[in-house]
Design goal:
heterodimer, A: alpha+beta, five-stranded mixed beta sheet, elongated, B: alpha/beta, four-stranded antiparallel beta sheet, globular
Chain lengths: 231, 587
């Protein structure tokens, strides 16, 4: 199977280049990550992140034939040859398919991604009805792979000011949690021309999410809550 | 090689469940803590845990920590230390409630309490009937727990060293541990992290087998570092084969599927577990179910064109239950087995999943080694928790859900011990002059190697050898050959070569350094397995089919130096409860 892979090692390369690989696959090689592991057996200098190989750790996000996705759950049989692989767009490249995710995590951290509840905790669990808990479905499952944020033009232009779809999805995850008491402060924090309102509902994030989550809907809900409290 | 140095009160190596729970405790105690991780914390392998956290909350019906203790001791085939087990099951409910207070998105009952599902080997009233004890968030409990713990650490402003790989343990002439050397992956720089206390929470070594549910990062790094520093490894012959890995792919399908009512079929459509475990059936202990499956396959009752897998049926649960309780499983089955479990059964095989052994500790998370007449002398400044540690709560076979319980309970316990140790030992001991010598020598050897072998090739040999010689069923001749082979591979591993010479994010170099740890983990496992002449829990020997309490009710200790083995007694005395005396184990 044929691949064209973005290669750049700042230690020796002046500029990036695409390199071609033709690799013989084993019948058991099912996913793109299997093929990348094989390529690495031939050329150990190919650098990428990977860990769980089942789509839950979020390590091996990359741009696959022009679309962001996880190598470990992208079937080889679905890919057009030569398979063109590039690092996630919009973030600085460290080497080959590895990007610097500092800015992405900075935005995630900026939304205070933890439950805020100042009441003294009860002796047992805080009660939450199954319906209240259901509000978190489609939100808490995010794996922080950055496929969404790095497919978002608004995040490309303003990665330092726009929270981005991943961060906003998590902001809503805590707003939606019946146990969280900081909704007002969370909304105040996002009521800003950049942090939330750079989202122009382009919806690339929805298309890119390998877990089928919907950041655009979460962003819409945050906007609704802002409108509601202003009237 | 000039090596930069930084000093901390405590260094935590690993940011999975145990590392993060410990880090939180240490940060909140106001200590200066460095948490090192090869991957961004939420990418640690805890993220892949699915089924739940074992704790006797009693939300679904009567439950008691005494029953949880009994189940765990019996599950361990009496090799678990009963003091550590009592400690774990009594702490568990508190730590689950705490996790809920941290924001963990547990599934809920109508009355608002945490939903609990049945799980293998967990029972009411000392083995009478299944109990619902597994606290879960759909089939993504590990993900939910790891993210919650990370989030809580963000709140506590824990200092992370992300994509740093610890390379070697530093100790002084007295044996006191004083930190680690570590490699910053992005720059290739090596640094000494000088610490008054060092906690290993480095996870397992499941990557020594070819068919494994474990992530690429599970390379036994803590085990290798400990073994190179002369610390023994305990009970490494005990490897859990999870009954339901996706055939061919190895990806985990949670036991929660059977907890929710799914069951296994052979090619004749027979629910064969009824023959092997008439009472708990598909919810017997994992070692029992995996052996039954391997027997079905061996005796020609496996399904599929080659008769090499079995079928996990869950379509009768209905799409609503599957979508609500097991959505991740459906996703995995579709992606990795081309099967929609709402309609068709999932092809599954026993797959390596968990390492019961590890770095020997007591129930406080302190690393203990034999010294003089003391079988369990603490190593000052050194702690371990989670899968890399052997407390031992899992003995010869771990019960499902007890791994997440272990991470929470012993992550916190180890941190509490560190806080006490630092209060009692306020002075900082100096580093020895040769603190980075072992690391320097390893890197110099690797960088200077000419005409060496490829790391991938040697790694493959380890996995093939472990799989063929140290599987579900073990045979004396195969084990003896396995020991010979693993020693040869260990020798080859000293001559590996990396072509990539870049300083920047050199993953080839990382894999070569991981190989050293894989080799030690595999050697410890094979040598310990060859020596144990009985069948107990996950260790099943063709030539010694019965458990032999008279000779083998004891823990193995493997030392890297000369593959030396020692043994130490099992703690049969709980902290307060009555001893659960060994008896025949049936489900």
């Amino acid at each position: 199977m044929r691949f064209r892979i973005f290669r750049y090692d700042p230690d020796k390369d002046e500029k990036p280049a695409m390199r071609d690989y033709d690799v013989a696959l084993d019948p058991h090689d099912r996913m793109l990550l299997d093929a990348l592991v094989r390529i690495k057996e031939q050329d150990d200098s190919l650098s990428l992140r990977r860990s769980c190989r089942e789509g839950v750790c979020g390590s091996d996000a990359m741009n696959i034939n022009g679309k962001n996705g996880l190598a470990c759950i992208t079937k080889l049989s679905d890919l057009k040859e030569p398979v063109e692989l590039r690092p996630l767009p919009g973030l600085p490249v460290i080497r080959d398919l590895i990007v610097d995710m500092t800015q992405f995590f900075k935005q995630y951290h900026s939304i205070k991604p933890y439950l805020i509840n100042e009441d003294p905790p009860p002796e047992k669990e805080r009660l939450q009805s199954p319906e209240e808990r259901e509000e978190l479905d489609g939100l808490y499952e995010c794996i922080l792979c950055a496929c969404c944020s790095t497919s978002c033009p608004s995040f490309w232009w303003n990665p330092d000011k726009f929270v981005g779809p991943a961060g906003l999805l998590q902001a809503y995850r805590f707003i939606a949690d019946s146990r969280d008491q900081a909704t007002a402060a969370r909304l105040d924090d996002l009521e800003d021309p950049y942090r939330l309102f750079r989202c122009h509902t382009i919806m690339n994030c929805v298309d890119a999410c390998p877990k089928n989550l919907n950041p655009t809907r979460a962003i819409g809900k945050i906007k609704e809550l802002m409108v509601k409290r202003s009237v | 090689m000039a090596v930069a140095k930084r000093s901390f009160d405590a260094v935590v190596v690993g940011a999975g469940g145990a590392g993060l729970r410990a880090a939180l405790q240490l940060s909140e105690a106001g200590l200066s803590v460095a948490v090192l991780s090869k991957v961004f914390p939420t990418r640690s392998h805890t993220v892949a845990a699915q089924g739940g956290i074992g704790a006797a909350l009693g939300n679904m019906g009567e439950d008691s920590w005494l029953w949880h203790m009994y189940d765990t001791v019996k599950g361990s085939d009496w090799l678990g230390d009963q003091d550590a087990i009592e400690f774990m099951v009594r702490e568990a409910p508190k730590l689950v409630y705490e996790l809920e207070h941290f924001g963990m998105p547990f599934d809920r009952n109508e009355n608002g309490t945490v939903y609990q599902r049945p799980f293998g080997g967990h029972s009411q009233n000392f083995g009478e009937r299944p109990v619902q004890r597994s606290c879960c968030a759909a089939d993504r409990t590990g993900h939910a727990m790891l993210h919650t713990l990370y989030q809580r650490n963000v709140r506590a402003r824990t200092q992370f060293f992300v994509e740093w790989m610890a390379l070697d343990l530093i100790s002084d002439a007295s044996g006191q541990v004083l930190g680690v050397t570590a490699l910053e992956m992005e720059t290739g720089e090596v640094m000494i992290l000088h610490a008054r206390a060092t906690l290993f929470a480095t996870g397992g070594a499941g990557r020594i087998f070819s068919s494994t549910t474990n992530a690429f990062i599970c390379t036994g790094d803590g085990l290798g570092m400990a073994a190179r520093a002369g610390i023994p490894l305990e009970d490494m012959e005990f490897w859990q084969f999870h009954p339901t890995g996706v055939a061919g792919a190895g990806v985990l399908i949670t036991e929660g599927v059977r907890g929710e009512g799914g069951y296994l079929l052979n090619k004749a459509g027979e629910r064969f577990m009824e023959r092997y475990a008439p009472n708990l059936k598909d919810l017997a202990s994992r070692d029992v179910v995996s052996r039954a499956m391997a027997t079905e396959i061996k005796e020609g009752r496996g399904a599929g064109p080659h008769g090499d897998y079995l079928l996990l049926k869950l379509d009768h649960l209905g799409p609503e239950v599957i979508e609500k309780r097991l959505p991740g499983i459906r996703e995995i089955a579709k992606k990795f087995a081309d099967v929609d479990p709402v309609k068709d059964p999932i092809p599954v095989v026993p797959t390596v999943h968990y390492m019961m052994g590890g770095i020997p500790t007591n129930y406080r998370g302190e690393v203990v080694v034999p010294r003089g007449s003391d079988a369990e002398a603490t190593v000052p400044g050194f702690y371990a928790a989670g899968e890399c540690a052997c407390a031992s709560v899992h003995g010869a076979n771990r019960l499902g859900t007890n791994s997440l319980t272990d991470l929470l309970v012993f992550g916190k316990a180890a941190a509490d011990s560190i806080v006490r140790f630092l209060q009692e030992n306020p002075e900082r001991k100096d580093l020895p002059k040769d603190a980075a010598e072992r690391t320097r020598a390893r890197l110099a050897r690797l960088d200077g190697q000419k005409n060496g072998e490829s790391v991938a090739e040697v790694g493959m040999e380890i996995r093939r050898t472990m799989q063929a010689h140290c599987g579900v069923f073990r045979f004396p001749d195969m084990l003896a050959k396995g020991v010979k082979k693993i020693r040869e591979i260990a020798d080859r591993a000293t001559r590996t070569q990396v072509k990539d010479k870049s300083r920047v994010f050199n993953t080839a170099r990382i894999e070569a350094l991981e190989l050293d740890n894989l080799v030690d983990s595999a050697r410890a496992s094979m040598v310990s397995a060859e020596a144990r002449k009985e069948s107990r829990g996950a260790h099943d020997r063709a030539d010694h089919q019965a458990r032999d309490d008279a000779n083998w009710l004891k823990h193995t200790l493997w030392y890297k130096d000369g593959d030396r083995l020692e043994y130490k007694p099992v703690h049969m005395k709980p902290l307060t409860a009555r001893t659960i005396e060994p008896k025949v184990r049936t489900y």
